[in-house]
Queue: 2 jobs
Job 1
Amino acid sequence: MSLRGRLTLLYTSLVGGILLLFDFVVYVAVSFTLIGQIDDVLQRTALDVISSTHVNSVGMLNMILLPKMDLPADVYVQLWGADGRLSTFSPNASQLDTPFDPDGLSLHTSILRDSYVQGAHLRVLTIPLKLPGGNRHVSTLQVATKLAVVDSTQQILTIILMLGTIISIFVTSLAAWFSVKQALAPLQDVTQVALQITRADDLSRRIPSHSYPGDEIGKLINAFNQTLGRLENLFHSQRRFMADVGHELRTPLTVIKGNVDLMRRMDEVDDESLCSIESEVERLTRLVGDLLLLAQAESGKIPLAQQVVEMDTLVLEVMSQMRVLARDRLTLRLGEIDQVLVCGDRDRLKQVLVNLIGNAVKYTPAGGDVVVGLGKVGQKARITVSDNGPGIPADDLPHIFERFYRAEKARTRSRDGKGFGLGLSIAYWIVRHHDGRIEVDSVDGRGTTFAVWLPLTDKGCS
Ligand code: ADP
């Protein structure tokens, strides 16, 4: 069954159920009130009759003659003797020689009951009469009235309530059917646009949400649009990745092929060509290694050792290696350094330092200054690499940890011909897998500071 059908059925059943309950309560309340009033009249009449009885000289119960009493017109009275014979009765009950309530008569107890006599529906009050002070049962009084008015009132009430309920259920189901259609209409729009997006294979399209601002449908559309946005980004980065890998592979392969062709034409092994081939193969090997490492890191499958690493020793070690790179071109120096222990994989952490310090040395022009610092802030170790190089443009900053992203817009090889735009991505993932984070602060033209935060340890590693 459709959602529309199900909701309509639900609303209709709810309203129908509540109305039936209401009908029942009204019917019972009205019936109780009417019967209660009738019972009052019967009891008052019975009291009047009983109050006119007296005991005669031989101890028998005597009563005034009922025809002489001023009784309500629609109330009938019978007095039955202990011998089972009708002693007296009201004038309006003259045609009846059977008890109003034969069963009630034989019960010898005061009781109010409904009974049917000669096709008439009666309400009957039966009261056994006893001698004052004694238990001797001398006669039984029965006071009755017809329930025709109550019965017809109940019938009319039932018809009105049922008709009202049926009409209400009908109107409710119509209202539910059309209002649910209206409420679900925006979902149809969403489905249509989603199908169009799928058919046109165009992830840049969005479902317009301005028609339903702030309501549930608007929120659903916004969430859907956000998902589309993320999918579009992923799709683009996937495409860019393929293009970047292709680009990075093509250049060295072209160089290798060119050199091989040259050697073949010259018919001799040329040393310069061999060196070129060797360097390009090295570059390819590095690229493949970086890509594999990145793929492992991104999927969380990178094998990481868990050992206590003395970060101060590691920083000093990387510094002495990097000094070879810096040569006399720029100053590479240590800032503040503290004794710091962290838990993790020494080789991977070293790779982070090599990438960050290597970048600073690579991008800072001659005469520049690169400062490396290590300290503790709260429960964290903080490693900083600052330079006064060209800085990173604000537009590029949010992207520099992406694969193959290079701040210099031209997607050519970087200055020294070694960068693939993977170094920071690798550093980012390694730090993340050490429960740390990496931050960058850069002012275009004034310099860059990278800060790596890692959890400290003072005991061993688990
Ligand atoms: P690459 O192999 O190009 O160095 P990275 O992922 O290490 O790749 O760096 C990404 C980009 O971030 C670089 O291309 C460069 O534009 C920018 N970058 C990184 N470090 C620095 C720095 N210290 N100063 C200026 N730019 C930097």
Note: The chain has eight helices and 14 strands.
Job 2
Amino acid sequence: MGVNVTEAVNGISVIVCDSADDASKTTAELIANQLGQKPNSVLGLATGGTPLKTYQYLIEFNQSGRVSFRDATTFNLDEYIGLTGDHPQSYRSFMNEHLFSNVDIPIDQTYVPDGSTSNIDQHCRDYEALITDHGGIDLQLLGIGHNGHIAFNEPGSDSQSATRLVDLAANTIEQNSRFFDSPSEVPRQAITMGIATILKAKTIVLLATGSGKSDAVRAMLYGDIGPQMPASFLREHPNAIVVLDAAAAEGLPLNSAAS
Ligand code: GLP
């Protein structure tokens, strides 16, 4: 593993790693440390291509006895509307396959919004209440969309937003169509935790890898804070960490990059 450089940028701790693999391992270590300090942590978890390697490292750490999820509770950020949990492209299936079924977490301590609920508004209110009943999220893992979305909070989402039904942006549908047989199968709506829900987490860790994310990362860290760039609200959080690989950090005016 190369040397990681941490630098404070506009209120966010930015860790730049040599490779996507290093960044994923660093992120897994942050989560493992959280569980080490507080075994019954409440973790907020994310889907997408980005966290896959982090989950592989967590599975490795769990199987080698370095970390246990036995007393943890997890809340996922979002779920597609219209997919039942057993649909192969549902985020519930994703989490079961890529993390939950490979670690020692009891499945009834894992929560993912139900995209097939008959009462969406009530379900969203219940999801918020459940997070609060568990004492709030200790560590929230995030990715970032090419348009700066976090979870499914698309541009236009305000900082007070809670868990709710949202329409997906056209470019999000296009990006996510790679997981479906055809673009027409990609759901157009989702349930997502809101920006306010995410910002209530005690620690936030956003992982971004690859050159495709560098524009969004730059706008998040250096652009205006506002709904046009949902990830920029992390700069108003007291304990936000952004983990990048060199490609996602390319072109950032970091002090360490100048040396
Ligand atoms: C999805 C998820 C987000 C994720 C983003 C980036 O739309 N709702 O939580 O961060 O896409 O995905 P990827 O990591 O595949 O680039």
Note: The CA atoms of residues 45 and 76 lie 5 Å apart.
